[in-house]
User: Fold this.
Amino acid sequence: MKILAIETSCDETSVAILNGDDVTHVTASQIDVHRITGGIVPEVAAREHVQVMIPIIKEIMQKTVLIPDDIDRIAVTSGPGLITSLMVGVETARTLAYSWNKPLFSINHIEGHIAANFIGNPDIEFPAVALVVSGGHTELLFVPKPGTYELIGATRDDAAGECFDKCARILGLDYPGGPEISKLAAKGDSTIHHLPSPMLDSDNSDFSFSGLKTAVLYFHRDNPDAKLEDVCASIENAIVNVLVAKTKKALKVHGAKSLLVGGGVAANSALRTELENLNANIYIPAPEFCTDNAAMIAAACRFHEQPTDLFSFKANPNWELTPR
Assistant:
């Protein structure tokens, strides 16, 4: 089965073709554009998607030496995400499906991050627990079988990746902030105990990172000369501690055989190291499949049998994979 997938939920324009176990993907980054404003401006992101969408579709068709008749399915991220960005991908996919006479599949972005683990790993054991941790999402889900999800816990405020980025801005680091904190953290020590791991010992599986962000704000204000590498290491340690502790508990409670990790923060080396020490079969995608990409949307499409009605569906920025 050959699946052409489109992902435009935020600031990455990505197109992929999944052909059996072979995946080809092209992603156009907007980092340089948004570095000017220190964050994503939704209208700017949408305009950037429009400019590059058709060129990268043409590029991937040329790379794979395929023509429209060769494609079996078209899949697209329909939510959650930025509405203006999502609309570009959805309308492009709808137009291709109509003009090429192909079935169209509407895919949830969170399911895509989970499905990224199946790229090159067809024999994952179930039941599983999934940890999705990115700039916009931090969730734990129980996955009894592929395509079936039950929410275990989620962030009550900021996502982990959002906390990384906002802390980086407080510290005056370049955008995107998460990777900058990670680079500096590797050179420092987590010796600043004023920075908490919020809800670490709570009796549920929810997360909260706004308190850490506030603690960093006040610590930096009162200690402007603190070693930056140590501050970054302490921030990273506080976030990783709570992610790992909650995940470990979820694996035990649900008797999971496997842990599926996804989202941009899953590329963080400290988090990957700590998760790999847990007592389970750990699956973490290659870094290129952790950040937003269309290959994961194509992988998720394989879990679905019935196509989406071509004209009735819309982009949904608030689409929850598993409502509370």
User: Anything to note?
Assistant: Residues 76 and 90 are 6 Å apart (CA to CA). The beta strands are 2-7, 12-19, 22-29, 73-79, 104-108, 128-133, 138-145, 148-154, 258-262, 281-283. The first helix runs from residue 31 to 35.
